[in-house]
Structures
1.
Amino acid sequence: MKQPATIRSTNRLPLVGLIAVRWHFLVASSILLLAGCSDQPAGQLEVSKFDVWVVPRDGSRIPSPRALSTADDDTVYALDNAGRVLVYSPDGKLVQKWHMPEHDVGRPEGVIRLHDGRVAVADTHYHRVVFFHPDGTVESMIGEKGRGEGQFVYPVAIEQDPHGFIYVGEYGDRQRIQKFTANGEFITQFGEQGIEPGQFQRPSGIIWIDGAIYTVDAFNNRIQVFRDTGEFESVLHVTDLEHPDETVALDFPYDIRATEDGRLFVVENKGSRITVLNTDGTLVGRYGDPGRGLGQFFNPWGLTVLSDGRILVADTGNHRIVELTPAQSGM
């Protein structure tokens, strides 16, 4: 990969592992990312900028981001392995942060801002969902460790649909998705441990699209689709448009997001890359490979997409949040 044409910092604070400040990398060369540009070969997009957002220190260390979510106003919510909720403005400024009620046992892995303004966090190792007021104070919690309705074992994913219903994915004993009202009342559940269609091994990312739940089934290396009432619909077969008879492999997909133009963005933890698909499973393109430099990720856990098309990646192993700005020319 060619080196960027220009590298500049937005301030002059000391650099610590590329995380102490937000950096802008203006990229003049084409980097493999997405297909669909009329003047680029299939599978390529010209990336205009590569940014790194600040992950604030926790004592003497720089924690690793684990999850990302974007609200309707493009406010970004992140979770890190210091047990904190981090709130960013759309331009990458840290505007708020708070700790989970407890975080010695383990760290949370799923976050979303609800329609009513509350922030809901899948508090993974405490087997519950915590609801915060926008100022970071705890309003309520649901769940406890267990296999029953409304109980959890390692909840990792959380989503809310336009009707207000909340979906929580868990990867412990039950390997399931549970559906709740906005007030946390149990409605239904679906999925179980296994490798067959409709079964899970770590449903670690959930999105709602037009009455369907798309779930990344991480250890089964696939995406599954259910109706939001719980009925299994299909395994999404990922195919290359140029070779439609060949299945494209996913490598530990950990999170999934969708855009209004009908594209799915998937982050692959073991593959250390982003995969972009149409909702029918057709491969649009890919970006990234394992490493610590520009255009590389190290075991990323989460991602989200802003309304202007910027892509944010929780580059967990590199202790950074990466912002990618695809160039618009030629699209």
2.
Amino acid sequence: MNVLIIAGGMSRRMGRDKGLVTRPDGSRQIDHIAGLAKQISGQVHLSVRAGTAPPLDLPLVHDLRPGAGPLAALEAAATTSPGPWLAIGCDLFLLDAETLARLVEQRDPSRAATCFLNRIDGRPEPLCTIYEDRALVAARAALDEEKHCARRFLESLDPATLDLPNPVALDNANTPGELEECFAKLTNGASRKTVRVLHFAKLREERGVDQEFVETYACTAGGLYEELRFRHRLSLEAFALRAAVNGDFAPWNAPVADGDEVVFIPPVAGG
């Protein structure tokens, strides 16, 4: 099996190359992912953005359609070697060997792809997925039709789906706040907890409730809000809010424990 590490994103929201981020153990993120990939296969390739110096010595895959996202990386990979290809996003800071081993062991070659379901919204995750040859052909067809969304493409394949052995393994990080949450999970562990969330103003309008009890693996107030925002497609970004934990204003990296009461306070007219 070939492995493709997809590291070609622009990282605009993070403000720096996510592959070069230093993890809590001192290693670079790209080296962590490469190490996991090499446990699966001796054929590990790297997809990087055109004009970017490769961060490590691996065979490179160059997109045939620059800027077209992960599907373009899959299309290019298929021209170098037949499938199956295991595609891994370089921003999976919590990915572990057990998760990749489960994916490979339970691969279903009778289906176009084998993947995990996202723990928050239950949809398939395209950047930790095994793509069979017919999926790679379909990727080219999707690009020809200018359909670039990797998740919708994966759903269209009717993939074999698996539950995650480590629930947070595919939590990614697109912003500095999300990275801080990932590092909190790496440092402190991630356990399921139940918290009470109170909603006011615009958030109450969008959720349709004053309060709710939420099961979460978040370690911080910021991580909790991003889970809620992703699950319910909330419109407000964290920078527009203030957080309070158990009645006191708190920074976004404030820890969240089982039984806590959390409020995310949106801006209000005149205040």
3.
Amino acid sequence: MLMVRKSADRGHADHGWLRSNHSFSFAGYYDPRFMGWGNLRVINEDRVAAGKGFGTHGHRDMEIISYVLDGNLAHKDSMGHIEGLPPGDVQRMSAGTGVEHSEFNHADQETHFLQIWIEPDKKGIAPSYAQKTFADADKRGQLRLVVSPDGADGSISMNADARMYAGLLDGQDEASVALSPGRKSYVYVVRGDVSVNDTALHTGDAAYLDQETSVRLAQARDAEVLVFDLAA
């Protein structure tokens, strides 16, 4: 089974300093049909105005991933991390028993990034943080594992039964991920055009897959794609 959700059908919020597209119910956007997919709970496409950002706030028991597309985020948290996140960087926070953090755009241009939440395997663990750069060269023409339960292949480890792949595909590039029985998958097109299991998708579109044996990407045009292998 493959279901497509078009970019324009997502939830939208405009707070002036922040413009967001919500793939799943979040904050003031609620749709009981879109509460998550497997253990994937949130994908917010956020655009933060220059000189603005998310003030200090808290989370518990959630795996939170930031994937920066354009601009730069300044991260600060209660674990003592003070980091900058440029494009190509992936950040993972395991909120566990509780963490407070802020994310600001101190630059003079808009910052564009994805905020992703995945439900954890274990609750009440100690909070932790990881950040890593994944160069475009490592993603070009293939799907690069960037986050996983065990840190396989140089990916960032997390406390969740999920794998997140990132790829840059164009022209004759093809890539695939095999899915074990009982798994779900979610494909999000960050930008460009790509065919997912012979179904055409465009910027901001997503594909929900269930009872499929693989995710197959082809017929790409300047595409950046995220693929999630998820617990059902």
